[in-house]
Amino acid sequence: MKQVRVAAVQFEVGENIQKNLEFSLNMIKTASEVRANLIVLPEFINHCSWYENKDHCYSVAVDIDGHFLNSIGEKAKEFETFIVVNCTVKRDNNNVTGTNILFGPNGKKLAESDKQVLMGNENNFLERSKSLGPITETSIGRLGMFSCMDGVMYETPRCIALRNAQIMCNTLNSFATDEASLHIPVRAAENKVFVVASNKSGSLVPEKAKKSLADKLMIEPERLNGAGESQIVNPEGKILAKAPLTGNHMIWADIEINHAESKLRPDKTDIFKSRRPELYKPIAEPPKAKESYSLKDNISVAVVQPNILSENFEKEISREIQDLSNSNVKLIVLPELFYLNKKINISEVETNNNKTKQIISILSKSLSGSDTKIVMSIISQDTLSHEGIVLGSDGIIMRQKQLHFCQRHKWSTSLSKQLNIIDLDWGRLGIVVGGDSIYPEVFRLLALKDVDAIAVTTKILENWETQFGFIERSAENRLAVIVASEPSKNKTSMIIAPNKDFTLWTKWERPFDGSINEPTTTYAENKFGTTISKINPEASNNRIVTLQTNVVESRPWNLLDPLIK
After folding, report:
1. Please, what's the b/e burial string for 428-459 (b: 16 or more CB within 10 A of its CB; e: otherwise)?
2. Which fold has domain 298-564?
């Protein structure tokens, strides 16, 4: 396999353009000392992201063929390395873009990529990209680039990975700690590519403006510092190198570039070949505002990890459901096909049908007199499909067949062509079934249907899913996610609830600790049993992270051809 050494540097950027250039060149030199083949710098290295007006923004932007960027190119040539930088760049008609630039070892510019999703005040000064950024074939692999808020939503990185990138370079200018804990690593794992991400440290705005801006944002001034934690992540979501929260640092790692060629999960499902682009077309349509309506707060939900091998399994599960419904738990989620033996023999039609009917009867009776609902999955022999269901006291009230082919359910040959939802008295619910849980498109489609919570009945296979995967899905779509899986080491059920405090420039109940949007997560233990927690469906009504930026509606819907073709 071909080994490549990649590096990311993080540092503070101020108002003095020449000093910023000199510091950038010094950090490049530091990275060259480990003989890095690729060096990634943060977003907006020419000037801190603060401007008095549009004229000021244009005046501190750089020329694409000017001294600033040419100096970076000279260093790429001197150290015979690839370099990715991001600057505000002067364009025609006094416009400015936030642009990633890739330099080759010969010092030449190989590619440019403008930012697709602008964050807050950036909308007042910068122009959005009007086209997809390129994938560049190089001697070290195929490279794609995106910036900061582009990676808080899955669409831009997904379109890069779908065009066969092996390394994605992410330039950041962020004070949010949940960038590093959620959004950076998930983009590597969900696409099975390498991510090299460089964030800033130090103050993100001039000291003279810091207190005034912090007061308006309603956060402490020290929170307007770059959140650091630049990192290099492999296709399994493992963090190979990570910088501290503060200070100027260089990190590096050796990667096997061909590792990004395989898109297979542990169950041998190919996550790209099994995609259903025809289902994803609503994601590429103009955004519509979420229908906001009165929802309840502090709803109790539960995940149950039952032990089918218990001699008294049926009595135990019935008693547990009764106890939960009597405790005012509104939703119970069970692992996929929990009522069947681990090795499913699909040819045993009558046996499977009988077991399915029996467990549905047991659970429905256990809900008698209750408004509690159960989500689970079954084998539907009628259509030969893996099917999620919502159970009430009168039986099945909603069905959702699996959407994607999955190797561990390869008997499920009938796939759904649509996503169903159900309105309950506390909010709108969607179901994600089995192997569908690995596709970010499914969660986005349900968000576009204005669901407030998603019940996931699945089997977790990879560590990253519970470490940050499902949590990030909850965050980027602003909805609760209740995941049920059979317990195993480092892979267990979880209940994830977005916080009500979310929008910057508004008063929060909780103190701002650096995390804008990391949900509250309750993990089940790695053993049989029940876990109960609260969700706040009302929180799903708010998707506005800051001025002019909505985490669902601001997606780059008009640049998503790779997603739907």
Report:
1. bbbbbbbbbbbbbbbbbbbbbebbbbbbbbbb
2. Nitrilase/N-carbamoyl-D-aminoacid amidohydrolase (3.60.110)
